[in-house]
Amino acid sequence: MTSERRSQKDWYSILESSPSDMLQDLKQKYQRLALMYHPDKQGPDVTVTEAEEHLHRFIEVDQAWKVLSNQETKRAYDLQLRASELNQSWPVDAHVCLDDMTWDDDNEVYTYGCRCGGEFSIGREEAEGEEAIVCCDTCSLSIEVKTTT
């Protein structure tokens, strides 16, 4: 099992909401923020820098609404969010560098012995990221494999 890290925006925080908010609550928050940051609603005393920041914020609010207002995209986003939370809180028993693992030509995986006698295995594709969480094939222990130096 590997952890996949994505630099993804938190659409809920952009809308100042939470996953438990109902669609009507999300809509009200979206409307309030969209009105607050809409380029046509800015006063004459707003500096160019502030106007650019407001435009950027308006675009983010609009993107967040597009994701969270659609039932399918919201469900997919919620699943990604939950998977990310699970990966971040996964208990790690050891940190191992990929260089410390052994390449198995027959199975085309890197392996590392577990203290229970089992093995941790990571494939070439999984090893392409910066780090990965790998579970033992015998027990419940897991290691974090640092794949870059």
TrEMBL record:
Keywords: Iron, Metal-binding, Zinc
UniProt GO molecular function: ATPase activator activity; ferrous iron binding
Domain J intervals: 10-81
Lineage top rank: taxon: Eukaryota
Domain (DPH-type MB): residue spans on this chain: 92-148
InterPro entries, sorted: DnaJ_domain, DPH_MB_dom, DPH_MB_sf, J_dom_sf
Keyword Metal-binding in annotation: yes
SUPFAM superfamilies: Chaperone J-domain (SSF46565), CSL zinc finger (SSF144217)
Similarity comment: Belongs to the DPH4 family.
Record protein name field: DnaJ (Hsp40) homolog, subfamily C, member 24
Organism expressing this protein natively: Oncorhynchus kisutch
